[in-house]
Amino acid sequence: MEGRIRKRIRIGSRDSRLAVTQSQIVIEAIRKAHPELELELVTMKTTGDKILDKSLDKVGGKGLFVKELDIALREGRIDLSVHSLKDMPMEIPEDLPLIGYSKREDPRDVLILKDGFHMEEECGIIGSSSKRRVLQLKKLYPNLQFETIRGNVQTRIKKMEEQNYNGIVLALAGIKRLGLESIVTRVLSTEEMIPAAGQGILAIQGRRGLDYSFLDTFLNKESEIISTCERAFVTALDGGCSSPIAAYAQIKGNEISLQGLYCEEDSEDIRIGSIHGEVEKAAKLGETLARQLRSGR
């Protein structure tokens, strides 16, 4: 079966509503291009979904969101897995390569506030598990306080409604995929809030040696180039969960531009820079901007 298109494809996913919705996007694309294939969705709860009382950098980083799916891929219980690229570790196992990427959904972040709360005028508490988001929001709203909040989209919304949070920050891509745009209070521009690397892009991970040609009509070349640039920037900065890092690349014609943010661990000294060049040099551009920001240039 290795190396050939199978008649039955098992797609692995985290069991949150958003993860399942994103996996269904991939399933529908495969079904449209290859109606002859039998498709099965296999969901599972990852370690990252179970540990909600600690920040990711204290319990093992983003790898906790893929651990169980990686094991299932290796054991042949699934044939591919679907992830939000921003949640993927920078180091990808050689035997479980990233097959490709979806077209990018809106990469911006959004604020969701309790009814009647005006963050420009009042002090309040905003929930976010992302140092990247917190540091950038502090510049926009110095009057606010920030506390850690973990969980999937619905869990965070429920915590905001029931606990001592005046608002939360989430990725617009997930909100749109769940059809929840009506609860968004404010969309933050990419200049106000540089997104996480890969935000809005779905990554498909597979097992080395299998034939994934049935994905050809779904995979997006522009997203591949953008992802290469953004992830090269993060990798060059040894990016994990401990240091706030943001990266946002855009392609126009044969040129790619990258905006990056870096802040050393336990510091609030944000360094922001940009670079542009030919798309063929996407990875090199990411690495170059990382060096510039790290050296303070």
TrEMBL record:
Q: How does it assemble?
A: Monomer.
Reaction(s) catalysed (UniProt annotation): 4 porphobilinogen + H2O = hydroxymethylbilane + 4 NH4(+)
| EC numbers, comma separated | 2.5.1.61
The organism's place on the tree of life at top rank: Bacteria
Q: What would you give as a GO molecular function for this chain, any one? A: hydroxymethylbilane synthase activity
Q: Which residues carry this modification: S-(dipyrrolylmethanemethyl)cysteine?
A: C241
- Give UniProt keywords alphabetically: Porphyrin biosynthesis, Transferase
Annotated ranges, domain Porphobilinogen deaminase C-terminal: 227-294
Give the family, as the similarity comment puts it: Belongs to the HMBS family.
Other remarks in the entry: The porphobilinogen subunits are added to the dipyrromethane group.
Q: Which GO terms describe its biological process?
A: protoporphyrinogen IX biosynthetic process
Protein name per its UniProtKB record: Porphobilinogen deaminase
- Give the GO cellular component terms, alphabetically: cytoplasm
Could you tell me which pathway this protein works in? Answer: Porphyrin-containing compound metabolism; protoporphyrin-IX biosynthesis; coproporphyrinogen-III from 5-aminolevulinate: step 2/4
Q: What does this protein do?
A: Tetrapolymerization of the monopyrrole PBG into the hydroxymethylbilane pre-uroporphyrinogen in several discrete steps.
The record's section on InterPro entries has: HemC, Porphobilin_deaminase_cofac_BS, Porphobilin_deaminase_N, Porphobilinogen_deaminase_C, Porphobilinogen_deaminase_C_sf
Query: Which CDD domains does the annotation name?
Result: PBP2_PBGD_2
Limits of the Porphobilinogen deaminase N-terminal domain: 9-208
Cofactor(s), by name: dipyrromethane
Cofactor binding notes? Binds 1 dipyrromethane group covalently.
